[in-house]
Amino acid sequence: MGTLKAGFGRADITPKLGCAMVGYGNRPSGATGVHDPLQARALVLESDAGCWGIVVNDLCYTSSDTVAAIRAAVERRTGIPAAHLLVANTHTHAGPHDGHVDNWPRPLAELVADAVEMAYNARQPARMGSGTGVLYGYSINRRWLDRPIDPGIAILRVDDLDGNLLGLFTNFACHSVVMGYDNTLISGDWPGDAMRRLEERFPGATCLFTQGGSGNINPLVAGVRKRLRGGQTIRAIGNVSAYYGKADDPNQWSIGDRGGGTFEEVAELGAAFADEVAYTAGRIQTTATPSAFWSEQVTVNAAADPGEHPERATPFLITERPDIKDPHNIPAEIMLLRLGDMLLVTQPAEVFAETAINLKIHLRALGYATPALVTYANGFLLYLPEPGDFPEGGYEVQWAVSLGLSSQFQPRFRAEIEPVLQRRG
Question: How far is CA 195 from CA 61, 90, 277, 388, in A?
Fold first, then answer.
């Protein structure tokens, strides 16, 4: 295998003040200020097998149309094939709508492409390695407090040939909702804080964050811990379950209510994540000749079967809806990207922790040492729960039902990627 080349890049994607902010439907106003600038951070890797890019935006999501525009801009400016670019998001709820073109002085796709072009032009001979860490105590299952979270952190480390850190790719499952509906300051929330801390700790490095199976996972920070011991009944988001009291107790608090979140809590989680990533990255050995590089895409129809959802009430909390053009054919792009010992598998939606955990167990059994599920990637279809979640209902399931998404999506997903995994070995 020839020499591995790698480069990192960054671009500012902070929107104009006054823009509508996404993630909550009950904000008092548009953006009134900027707490911390939003970034697009990119990694480009080149081997004998080809050239690939990953770009992660400090945005709640990017629609399939926005992804297509970003890929077209990147291919035009760098030659990286559209199918070789993974477009993900940190899922901050303190940012703008990706489809409102007036939010930026230039088209969003061109701003994001700036980061990828910078990374492409910064390519140099490099070393690479991957590994895993864990972060307990900072996340909680928001549907069932006593059900799993995914504490795993997947990390790709990229060095120059002298062993100096060029940058990191990270993956972890925890909603970017430390700041709630009452916040009107633009912010990358806790992932933005964590990446800044890592970049300050490693001057000259660029650090990317991607979400794992965080669809049912919320931050567990000081304010949430205090509410959990506040003498109230705790209701799950969407009222699926109740703890520390009865469901009809009038004195209750929903764990989905993120009002009152503070930037001190953002820093609490950001610092904890950055510390674990820094420690784990320090234990990763890199090589200039990593094993296989490849990618493949498959498309899964996310549409419900006829008659599957007879009632489709629209849930509360957010007002954004994916642009579904054909209710009978809702394409969901799945990308598999092999980077040495790391295998990334994407889904264009919010996915539950159980899905990610079971996928990683399966991938490790197949010999993939550092697997990761990357969500909010290459499009956005809101929530894609497991079949067993649908009878329980709740906020996330209500969104899937209202959009006409099938309860059988995840089995369809597994059936589509299995032949690729078996063939690629």
Answer: 18, 11, 10, 35
Percent of the chain residues past pLDDT 70, beyond the cut: 99
Say which amino acid occupies 12. Answer: D
Both tokens of residue 124?
A: 């140099």
118/394 Cα distance (integer angstroms): 43
List, for residues 43-57, the tens digit of each pLDDT value. 999 999 999 999 999
Ordered strands of the 242-243 beta sheet = 242-243, 233-235, 252-254
Task: Tell me how many degrees the CA angle 125-127-130 measures, rounded to the nearest 5.
Answer: 145
Q: Which two structure tokens, joined as six digits, stand for 329?
A: 């054919």
Look at residue 314 in the predicted model and tell me its pLDDT.
74
CB 4 within 8 A of CB 289: yes
pLDDT score for 2: 60
Task: Report pLDDT digits (tens) over 68-102.
Answer: 999 999 999 999 999 999 999 999 999 999 999 99
Confidence of residue 291 (pLDDT cuts 50, 70, 90): confident
Residue whose pair of structure tokens reads 């054919």 in the numeric block: 329
Measure the CA–CA gap between 239 and 40, rounded to whole angstroms. Answer: 35
